[in-house]
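Notes from hallway chat w/ T.B., transcribed later so I don't forget. T.B. wanted the structure written out for a chain they're using in a teaching module, and asked if we could keep both sequence and structure tokens in one place. Agreed to drop them here.
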Amino acid sequence: GVLKITKRIIEHTGTLSNGEITYGETVADSSISHDLVKDKVTGDIVPGTWSWKESSEHPTVDDSETTTYTIVFTPTDTVTYDPIEFPAIIKVNPKEIKISLKDDTITIDTGDGFGLGTGDVDVTGGLVGEDALSSISFDGDNVTVTENGTITPKDAVIKNGTTDVTKNYSITYDSSVLKVTKLDINVVTLPTPGKITYGDSLEDSSFTGGIIEDEKGNTVPGHFEWKTPETEPVVSDSNTTPYTVVFVPDDSSKYDNIEFDITVEVGKKDLTVKAPVSTTVSKDDEIDLDVDDLTVIGLVDGDKITEVSFDGSTSTVGKTTVTPNEDSIVI
């Protein structure tokens, strides 16, 4: 007849258990505690090794004490004995991480939490594999641009691709005393001041154009004004002397004023100087005219003509034409 030879039977009759793991670890990281394996008939101890069949798998918290894995005992003598398998569950603990602000000084921005986001926090303890911080919120306690306050990250969402894996983490949020500073702004295009005339003050020169942007490249609305609007430039200052302009942002909670210098065109003031229509002198006296005899239209307050000479006959009685010499006028 045909002789069938089977392998001897082994058994493990003691306690078999396995250790807890943390999310991110593999099944193989669960330690196996066991008693001796013996030959079921002879009672002899059977040497061998213990391992997990699914050793490379990464259980999640959802798998904890729910998903069944397999512990394998492999005898050293595989000719006499076959391996034996045991079902087991593994407790998977969430991975502990701490989320805190990278910096305790930020610039104020639009949106909630002063514009803070996932890029403004550090994750101590590290995320697993391709897991990434998808979103986060913040609680602020009296934080303004003029007063420091405590701010705390909260409600972190962690995803792997599109899958929410937040439950696999035990998250601690670290509060920080936060200093909020305003955004820097700079001049991209200078405004053009309007031309003025000698005698006008800077406040008579209005601005056109001009572009101001913040450090994030956003255009900043506001207006330009002269720092010393009462200043009265003279013609020699035209397009030469710099004067300070102040840009005043509409949103003073986000931006501070900035100052810069520009020049302004100053034109000459029109001046009309007339000789007297008539004057009376004694016969044979020479007509003697001076600045007090002039009619002057257009002088700026404080200015006066101190010298003048006249062209034309001034030595006879009767009708004669005299004209103030323009080149002789000293103001």
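Follow-up for T.B.: The two ends are 144 Å apart (CA to CA). Might be a good example for the class.
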